[in-house]
Amino acid sequence: MGVDMAEELLKGNFKVKNPVKVEKQAKSEPVHEQLRKRALASLGGSMVYMERKNLTWDGEKG
Amino acid sequence: MAKILMINPVIREESAPQNIPYGLTLLAGIALEKGHQVQFYDENAWRKGDKVIAEVCKADDWDVIAIGGLTTTYGSIKKILRIVKEVSPKSFIIAGGGIITSMPKEIMAWLKDIDLGIIGEAFVTWPEVLAKIDDKDFDFSKTLGVCYRDKEGNPILTNVRPNIKDLDVLPYPAWDLLPLEIYFKNSQNLLSEAAFMAKRRIDVMGSLGCSLICKFCWHLGTTGDMLVEENEAGIKDVRFTYGRNIRYFSPRYIVDMVKILVKKYNVDHAYFVDENFMTMDVASGRTWLKELSDLWIKEGLQPTSRRDGVPDDQNKGGVFWSGTSHASLAQKETLDKMYQAGCSSLVYGIESFDPVILKNLGKGVTQKHNLEAPRICMESGIIPVPNIMIGFPQETFFSIRTTIECMIKLGIHAKPHFATPYPGSEWYYTYKDSILEQYNGDLEAFIEDLGDASKITAVISHNFSPAQLLGLQMIVMQRNLRLLDQTEKQWAAANALMKPLAVPKGSFHMVNKKIQAPIEEASRAL
Ligand code: B12
Q1: What is the DSSP letter of B170?
Q2: Which of B220, B238, B432 to mutate to test the pocket of ligand 1 (most atoms within 8 A of CB)?
Q3: How far is the CA of A24 from the centre of ligand 1 (A)?
Q4: Ligand 1 binding residues, C-beta < 6 A
């Protein structure tokens, strides 16, 4: 049967030339990435999230 | 010996149970030590509903049925008491905790089935009351720290019960009486990587009280913050003050307790329910947290990831811990030690970044503290959890903008809480008339409406209405300065014509002074 339909983003009655696949969640996605996604999706009340890195601000110098 | 049924009511109905009823299980521990017959039903964990509660009440001839919790358990307690009275009408009903301490008269009036309220700290009052019940002596007029009923059923308060001096005399909570596996199932939370991986998290308590005087906060009348005095009509009632009795357990007590939790239940994360680690540390002369961290390591509780200097997702054992910090009182040196020992996250009640709001809050922090503290914490390796609130009395478009700008600077994502006047807090007494007005004079309706502050109940903002605050909450969550500008452009001029929903007033119940409530002079066994 060719491609596994469950993994296709496009669903139709023919096979496209360049199937678009759902990117499987890499099993080894680091814990901090999993946590960041879930935290941002559940903000509210005591649930807040602070970026661990890539801060735009590193303190007032001087 | 009295046969006692203790019931833990439901809290946060909308989410799975995560926090053990610490106060109730400590009291259960005390009752067990005194030789009483105790059964515990944790409806918050089981959530089995009315039929099962009725069966529990029928399970024996209970001399005493005790129930209590924070104010937001009011609805659950009301429902449970209705069942209790129907099924077990002869039992003597005792209530305690924040719900009744903040407003004893009202609660005794609304919940007529309560025979006795225990007001404030219960460590001594509770066993004393049980001993009297054993002796069939139901005259509580000489017992400190209670609200009893006179012959006509009117609630009468007795004088305040002094705090115990030394917390180390307390037994451990009676964990065995709880369905702990239910709590362990909900161990994971999103506050830190370590907590995200937690499989067996449990609450622990390291201290009681906090020296600060934040206007939204309350100290349960258990920390030297409460007096009982006569009001203008000569009737005794509770008054809350800026007085505090600061008490912390010794690091030895805490570490020994956690070691037992590991041995008995394989606990991997200790969540400290303390109001504020840092004010305790200051009170100890900056020794308490360092000693606690050192002992945590020495006694083998340190997570292996911290010992080996590898990321926490490679941890192989040990106990992480978390708690609450303070923006101007946390010191780098202490945070570093805490990180080493396994501290994974610290809540910072940032609340706002606006200088005017901060100045009025009583927290003793400036905008600079709030900007620096989360970063210093992050640098130590401990994840800061910076809470944000909107809807302060002094909130303006300007203050909201400041808060959003600082959130962007620091990389904070939050859907802010709404400033809420919980009973007991300075806000509650200052705005009680406005609250009543907003609830058509029905205070009970306000109490029943209270949940966590992610929805609006009574507004205490002098400038904004509920509709505006709801919109501003989304704007802050999206950190969307453009939408804020547009909103301000359209609304700001209109604000001058608005009648505020909240107007501050003085109250008998709030004494804005440092009057310390009594504490016992020496340590003694309970
Ligand atoms: C853990 C905790 C929770 C847990 C629940 C704990 C539980 N199962 O009861 C969770 C996380 C769910 C929680 C939620 C909230 N909490 Co909370 N919480 C705490 C915290 C940090 C510790 C409680 C504790 O265990 N204390 C230690 C024990 C020993 O004290 P205790 O329970 O009060 O018990 C003593 C007495 O009160 C008394 N007692 C208590 N119960 C009973 C019962 C009987 C029968 C008797 C005789 C005596 C008695 O005896 C004990 C010994 O003296 C306190 C702050 C603090 N450090 O106390 C806030 C605190 C209780 N929470 C508070 C608030 C405002 C909230 C929230 C509304 C916050 C929010 N904005 O969302 C929500 C409620 C949400 C909702 N939808 O209901 C306020 C209380 C306000 C009030 N008027 O009741 C407090 C005091 C925080 C503060 N400083 O303002 N909370």
Answers
A1: S
A2: B220
A3: 43
A4: A 45; B 11-12, 19, 21-24, 26-27, 66-72, 94-98, 102, 118, 121-123, 126, 205, 217-218, 220, 222, 273-275, 417, 422-424, 451-453
Tens-digit pLDDT string for chain A (62 aa)? 343 444 556 666 778 777 766 555 556 678 888 889 889 988 887 889 998 875 656 666 53
DSSP string for B450-500: --STTS--S---SS--HHHHHHHHHHHHHT-HHHHHHHHHHHHHHHTTPPP
Contact B116, B140 (CB under 8 A): yes
% of residues, chain A, pLDDT over 90:
5
- Cβ contact A30–B313 (<8 Å): yes
Question: Coil, strand, or helix at residue B46?
Answer: helix
- Going from the N-terminus, what domains does chain B have, and what CATH number goes with each? 3-164 (3.40.50.280)
**Subunit contact B410:A30, Cβ cutoff 8 A:** no
Cβ-based neighbours of B136, under 8 Å, separated by 6 or more: none
Q: Exposure of B76 by Cβ count < 10 A (0-12 exposed, 13-18 middle, 19+ buried)?
A: buried
User: Quick one: what percent of chain A has pLDDT higher than 70?
Assistant: 52
pLDDT value at position A22?
A: 58
- B450-453 contacts: CB < 8 A, separation 24 or more? B450/B71, B450/B72, B450/B74, B450/B420, B450/B422, B451/B12, B451/B14, B451/B72, B452/A45, B452/A46, B452/B12, B452/B72, B452/B417, B453/A45, B453/B389, B453/B417, B453/B418, B453/B419, B453/B420
Could you give phi then psi for residue B380, rounded to 5 degrees? -75, -15
Nearest CA in chain A to B381: A52
Task: Using alpha carbons, select from B317, B375, B238, B230 the residue that is nearest to residue A50.
Answer: B375
pLDDT at B519: 97
Query: What are the tens digits of pLDDT across the range B194-213?
Result: 999 999 999 999 999 999 99
**Based on the number of CB atoms within 10 Å of its own CB, is B75 exposed (0-12), middle (13-18) or buried (19 or more)?**
middle
Residue A6: its pLDDT value, please?
44
Q: Are B145 and B128 in contact (CB under 8 A)?
A: no
CB B236 within 8 A of CB B104: no
For residue B196, give how far its alpha carbon lies from the nearest alpha carbon of chain A (Å): 7
- The answer to whether A41 contacts chain B (CB < 8 Å) is no
The number of residues in chain B equals: 526
The pTM assigned to this predicted structure is 0.94
Cβ neighbours, 10 Å, residue B112: 11
Q: Is the ipTM of this complex over 0.85?
A: no
B280 forms beta bridges with none
CA pair distance B118, B99, nearest whole angstrom: 10
Q: Report residues of chain B scoring pLDDT below 70.
A: none
User: If residue B148 lies in a helix (H) or strand (E), which one and from where to where?
Assistant: strand B146-149
The C-alpha atoms of residue B500 and residue B114 are separated, in whole angstroms, by: 38
> What is the helix (H) or strand (E) element at residue B68, kind and residue range?
strand B64-68
pLDDT at A8: 58
Cα of A6 to nearest chain B Cα, Å: 29
Which SS3 state, helix, strand or coil, does residue B125 take? helix
